[in-house]
Design goal:
The protein is an alpha/beta fold and 415 residues long. The protein folds into three domains: 121 residues, no CATH class; 213 residues, von Willebrand factor, type A domain (Rossmann fold, 3-Layer(aba) Sandwich); 56 residues, no CATH class. 40% of the residues lie in helices and 17% in strands. It is built from 14 helices and 15 strands. The strands form five sheets. Strands 9-8-7-10-13-14 form a six-stranded mixed beta sheet, sandwiched between helices. Strands 6-3-15 form a three-stranded mixed beta sheet. Strand 13, helix 13 and strand 14 form a beta-alpha-beta unit. Helix 8 packs across helix 14, helix 11 runs parallel beside helix 12 and helix 12 packs parallel to helix 13. The chain starts with 12 loop residues before the first helix and ends with a strand.
């Protein structure tokens, strides 16, 4: 008689580890802003597979998010020298499940070119291959940040932009009226049948006419176009504090909130430093800080061009910065810079751009990460001109302020 011997199933640790928990533990590494190397120039993040290997090793060796049994298995693997095999499997699984996207390094990166190191890579293997954080990972990190922020605010549900107008829709908050062509067919069954019975009497079958149809009314909810302007000048990682990484997290959380709860809204991203440029939100995690100066006027120009493409009822700019305007793009394309005090030319040109935003009914809400006296006066002037708000906050509370402001805007009535 054939016998079958059963042994204890030990499992494959690489397949049992929760990748979302692992990704959360890697978030500081994946969203690096250059804080640990503040002398590097403006660049896209250029992570290699070898970088990822070392980051995974640090997470696994720390064991902060593992239970006791898993911790024992990891200790045993480290003692037996098989941890590298686990890391290889985890990297393959992250790539297979679309958390990272690996690509061969066939040429110089933007950082290589910026530092005069051109030409093709010489014999770089898979360990030197670059990888990018996928949209799936960014979506998870945005959701995780949003959940943490909403938890700290005590929010359990989200509203939408309310106005004083009536419209037909799914969420009812008013009475009913007769159906008109183009309305959402959200029938008020009671009113519809009552109208037919009043005309026909209690007879079966009951004939419904067009004029019998009644639909529920709801608050007309407006849409909003938001441009988040992130200061990526070098001051965002200087002075012993990383201010850019929290700003990146907030932008991703806001993107997740808008996409999942307010699909009628739009979110765009503008980075500014010596100049300014629009950037897809999905590329946010791959960007480090840039040159030294703050070109506030140019970022407002770019933001207005972005908002002009959006056909929304409401338009707003969320500006996150820690510095005063210190640069200006001249008509010939040259960048005028003055980092000492509030330059009258830079300030006057910047306020003129703020005035253009006001004429276009664009609200500017400013979230400041510094509180210099001259800077405070300038920010209050901008807020006064555009009927916006000024928040003086810290990297630890930035996300709460941004989310609170956005949620409050949605719960207020448009006049």
């Amino acid at each position: 008689m054939k016998r079958i011997r059963y042994t204890k199933y030990t499992g494959d640790l690489a397949s049992e580890i929760d990748l979302e928990s692992l990704l959360d533990a890697l978030s500081d590494y994946l969203l690096d802003s250059g804080y640990y190397d503040p002398f590097m120039g403006f660049q896209d993040l250029d992570h290699t597979m070898d970088d990822l290997r070392e980051a995974l090793r640090r997470v696994l060796e720390s064991g902060d998010f593992f239970d006791g049994e898993t911790r024992e298995l990891l200790d045993r693997m480290m003692a037996e020298g098989t941890l590298d095999e686990l890391i290889d499997k985890l990297m393959e699984r992250m790539e297979r499940e679309n958390y990272i996207s690996a690509m061969p390094q066939n040429g110089p990166t933007r950082f290589d070119e910026a530092n005069g190191r051109g030409g093709k890579a010489d014999g770089r293997d898979r360990e030197s291959a670059r990888f990018e954080v996928t949209d799936k990972s960014l979506d998870f990190l945005g959701f995780k940040t949003l959940r943490d922020l909403m938890g700290s605010l005590g929010k359990s549900s989200f509203g939408r932009h309310d106005t004083r107008d009536w419209a037909t829709g799914i969420e009812t908050s008013g009475g009913s009226r007769r159906y008109e062509f183009g309305d959402t067919v959200n029938l008020d069954t009671t009113a519809t049948l009552s109208s037919a019975i009043a005309r026909e009497g209690l007879e079966l079958p009951l004939n419904l006419e067009y004029e019998d149809l009644h639909v529920h009314q709801c608050d007309y909810q407006s849409s909003c176009a938001t441009v988040v302007m992130l200061d990526c000048s070098h001051s965002m990682i200087l002075y012993g504090e990383d201010r850019f990484t929290p700003a990146k997290r907030v932008a991703m959380a806001l993107s997740h909130l808008i996409r999942t709860q307010y699909p009628g809204d739009s979110l765009s991203l503008v980075l500014f430093h010596d100049s300014a440029e629009e950037l897809p939100v999905s590329h946010l995690a791959r960007v480090k800080v840039g040159p030294w100066h703050t070109n506030t006027r140019e970022r407002l120009r770019v933001a207005q061009r972005v908002l002009a493409r959006q056909r929304k009822d409401m338009k707003q700019i969320v500006m996150i910065t820690d510095g005063k305007p210190s640069a200006l793009t001249l008509p010939d394309g040259r960048i005028y810079k003055n980092a000492y005090g509030l330059d009258p030319l830079v300030v006057s040109e910047t306020l003129e751009e703020v005035a253009r935003c006001k004429r276009s009914n664009v609200m500017i809400n400013t979230f400041m990460l510094a509180q210099d006296y001259g800077l405070v006066q300038f920010v209050h002037k901008v807020s006064e001109m555009c009927r916006g708000k000024a928040y003086f906050t810290t990297p630890a509370t930035l996300g709460q302020y941004v989310m609170m402001d956005y949620m409050q805007r949605k719960s207020k009535t448009i006049h």
